[in-house]
Amino acid sequence: MYSVQDYSNIFTCVAPCEKDYHVIFMYQPDERCLVFDLDSDLPFPTYFQKYVTETLRTDHILHPEHHRRFRVLPASLFLQKFASDRRHMRQADGTWLQPPPPHPAIRSQDSVHNLDEFISMDTSKPGIAATAGAADLSSTFDCSR
Length: 145
Known about the structure:
By secondary structure, this protein is of the alpha+beta class. It contains four helices and six strands. It has helices spanning 48-56, 75-81, 115-119, 134-141; strands spanning 7-13, 21-27, 34-36, 46-47, 69-74, 131-133. Strands 4-3-2-1-5-6 form a six-stranded antiparallel beta sheet. It is globular. The two termini are 27 Å apart.
């Protein structure tokens, strides 16, 4: 069994101004890094290089304002700090957009809802962890070279 410190959580965002986000989990048991993405059609898990090549691709064809940003943090910090009362899953009138998961909402010792601190890629505001561009993410986790 692996300890929680062996894992990283990655929050991705299309651009700093977007609220659409995606979360993946990464684990590096040896010289190569594995990506666990519940929303991908790739094998589960997938090696990082294959994941980047087939899902992230490159930012070179995008306008700079659409370059992806990533917030990378250790799983232990995620488990300690993350909280979501599911307000993002409700319409303005309070009704659910979709039925909520059956388990209780996630709360931390400090917060009942701080999802925005995790998904914001605004580099002018302090966040839970530093953000990185696609090239930085690749150079950090691609150990296959």
